[in-house]
Amino acid sequence: MQITTLTVAVLAAASGAQAGCFSHGVLGRLGVGLYGSSAIENVCTYLAGGLAPYSFRSTCIMDKFGIKWDWRVSNDGDKYKKIEVSQCTADMEPVASGCPKGGDKDADGVNYKGDPNASTCISR
Fold first, then answer.
1. What is the pLDDT of residue 3?
2. C-alpha–C-alpha distance, residues 104 and 72, integer Å
3. What's the pLDDT score for residue 15?
Protein backbone atom coordinates (compact mmCIF):
# COMPACT_ATOMS: atom_id res chain seq x y z
CA MET A 1 0.00 0.00 0.00
CA GLN A 2 2.75 2.48 0.88
CA ILE A 3 4.72 1.68 -2.28
CA THR A 4 1.64 2.18 -4.46
CA THR A 5 0.85 5.53 -2.80
CA LEU A 6 4.43 6.70 -3.18
CA THR A 7 4.54 5.61 -6.83
CA VAL A 8 1.32 7.49 -7.64
CA ALA A 9 2.62 10.63 -5.90
CA VAL A 10 5.94 10.48 -7.78
CA LEU A 11 4.22 9.94 -11.13
CA ALA A 12 1.81 12.83 -10.53
CA ALA A 13 4.66 15.17 -9.64
CA ALA A 14 6.72 14.06 -12.62
CA SER A 15 3.84 14.60 -15.04
CA GLY A 16 3.35 18.19 -13.91
CA ALA A 17 -0.14 17.40 -12.65
CA GLN A 18 0.20 19.70 -9.67
CA ALA A 19 0.85 23.40 -9.46
CA GLY A 20 3.74 24.66 -7.36
CA CYS A 21 2.18 27.17 -4.99
CA PHE A 22 3.98 30.30 -3.82
CA SER A 23 4.48 30.56 -0.06
CA HIS A 24 4.72 34.37 0.09
CA GLY A 25 2.78 37.20 -1.46
CA VAL A 26 -0.71 38.57 -1.82
CA LEU A 27 -3.67 36.27 -1.28
CA GLY A 28 -5.50 35.70 -4.55
CA ARG A 29 -8.58 34.21 -2.86
CA LEU A 30 -8.08 31.03 -4.88
CA GLY A 31 -9.12 32.84 -8.03
CA VAL A 32 -12.70 33.47 -6.85
CA GLY A 33 -12.53 37.05 -8.13
CA LEU A 34 -11.53 35.98 -11.65
CA TYR A 35 -15.13 35.67 -12.91
CA GLY A 36 -14.82 31.92 -13.45
CA SER A 37 -12.71 30.04 -15.95
CA SER A 38 -13.65 32.43 -18.76
CA ALA A 39 -11.17 34.99 -17.38
CA ILE A 40 -8.37 32.45 -17.51
CA GLU A 41 -9.46 31.36 -20.97
CA ASN A 42 -9.33 35.01 -22.09
CA VAL A 43 -5.83 35.34 -20.62
CA CYS A 44 -4.78 32.18 -22.44
CA THR A 45 -6.26 33.43 -25.71
CA TYR A 46 -3.87 36.38 -25.40
CA LEU A 47 -0.91 34.20 -24.34
CA ALA A 48 -1.46 31.46 -26.95
CA GLY A 49 0.62 31.07 -30.07
CA GLY A 50 4.18 30.23 -30.89
CA LEU A 51 6.99 30.77 -28.42
CA ALA A 52 10.62 30.77 -29.47
CA PRO A 53 13.11 28.95 -27.24
CA TYR A 54 13.78 30.70 -23.91
CA SER A 55 11.10 33.33 -24.48
CA PHE A 56 7.90 34.32 -22.70
CA ARG A 57 4.65 36.19 -23.09
CA SER A 58 2.81 37.91 -20.22
CA THR A 59 -0.25 39.96 -19.37
CA CYS A 60 -2.25 41.00 -16.34
CA ILE A 61 -5.90 41.38 -15.37
CA MET A 62 -7.67 42.85 -12.39
CA ASP A 63 -10.10 40.62 -10.52
CA LYS A 64 -13.37 41.81 -9.00
CA PHE A 65 -11.65 42.36 -5.61
CA GLY A 66 -9.09 44.75 -7.11
CA ILE A 67 -6.29 42.20 -7.05
CA LYS A 68 -3.91 42.35 -9.99
CA TRP A 69 -3.08 38.95 -11.46
CA ASP A 70 0.13 38.70 -13.47
CA TRP A 71 0.05 35.82 -15.96
CA ARG A 72 3.07 34.48 -17.78
CA VAL A 73 3.77 31.58 -20.09
CA SER A 74 7.41 30.85 -20.83
CA ASN A 75 9.25 28.41 -23.04
CA ASP A 76 12.07 27.15 -20.87
CA GLY A 77 13.48 24.82 -23.51
CA ASP A 78 15.58 25.06 -26.64
CA LYS A 79 12.77 24.13 -29.06
CA TYR A 80 9.89 26.18 -30.47
CA LYS A 81 6.60 25.58 -28.59
CA LYS A 82 3.04 26.10 -29.75
CA ILE A 83 0.84 27.23 -26.86
CA GLU A 84 -2.78 26.15 -27.33
CA VAL A 85 -5.60 28.01 -25.54
CA SER A 86 -7.09 24.78 -24.18
CA GLN A 87 -3.78 23.51 -22.77
CA CYS A 88 -2.92 26.90 -21.30
CA THR A 89 -6.34 27.12 -19.63
CA ALA A 90 -6.00 23.59 -18.22
CA ASP A 91 -2.57 24.42 -16.77
CA MET A 92 -3.44 27.90 -15.47
CA GLU A 93 -6.69 26.99 -13.69
CA PRO A 94 -5.00 24.87 -10.95
CA VAL A 95 -2.56 27.73 -10.33
CA ALA A 96 -5.41 30.16 -9.65
CA SER A 97 -7.88 27.86 -7.90
CA GLY A 98 -5.42 25.66 -6.01
CA CYS A 99 -2.82 28.15 -4.81
CA PRO A 100 -3.87 30.86 -2.32
CA LYS A 101 -0.92 33.11 -3.27
CA GLY A 102 -0.57 32.04 -6.89
CA GLY A 103 1.96 29.63 -8.27
CA ASP A 104 3.32 28.02 -11.37
CA LYS A 105 3.15 24.77 -13.25
CA ASP A 106 5.58 23.14 -15.66
CA ALA A 107 4.24 21.07 -18.54
CA ASP A 108 6.28 19.81 -21.48
CA GLY A 109 9.00 22.47 -21.17
CA VAL A 110 6.51 25.31 -20.74
CA ASN A 111 6.01 27.18 -17.46
CA TYR A 112 2.56 28.61 -16.68
CA LYS A 113 2.48 31.23 -13.89
CA GLY A 114 -0.30 33.15 -12.15
CA ASP A 115 0.73 35.66 -9.51
CA PRO A 116 -1.70 37.90 -7.57
CA ASN A 117 -0.31 41.30 -6.54
CA ALA A 118 -1.43 44.44 -4.72
CA SER A 119 -1.00 46.88 -7.57
CA THR A 120 -2.78 47.70 -10.84
CA CYS A 121 -2.28 46.70 -14.44
CA ILE A 122 -0.52 49.33 -16.53
CA SER A 123 -1.70 49.85 -20.10
CA ARG A 124 0.95 49.65 -22.78
1. 46
2. 9
3. 37
Q: For the chain, which ranges sit under pLDDT 50?
A: 1-16
Phi/psi for 43 (5° steps) reads -60, -45
101, 26 in Cβ contact below 8 A? yes
The pLDDT value recorded for residue 72 is 97
What sign has the CA pseudo-torsion 108, 29, 36, 117?
negative
SS3 10: helix
The helix/strand/coil state of 106 is strand
Q: To the nearest whole number, what is the mean pLDDT of the chain?
A: 85
In degrees rounded to 5, what are phi and psi of residue 103? 175, -165
Nearest CA among 39, 24, 25 for reference residue 93: 39
The pLDDT value given to residue 33: 84
CB within 8 A of 117, min separation 6: which ones? 25, 26, 67, 68, 69, 70
Closest CA to 118 of 29, 45, 53, 50: 29
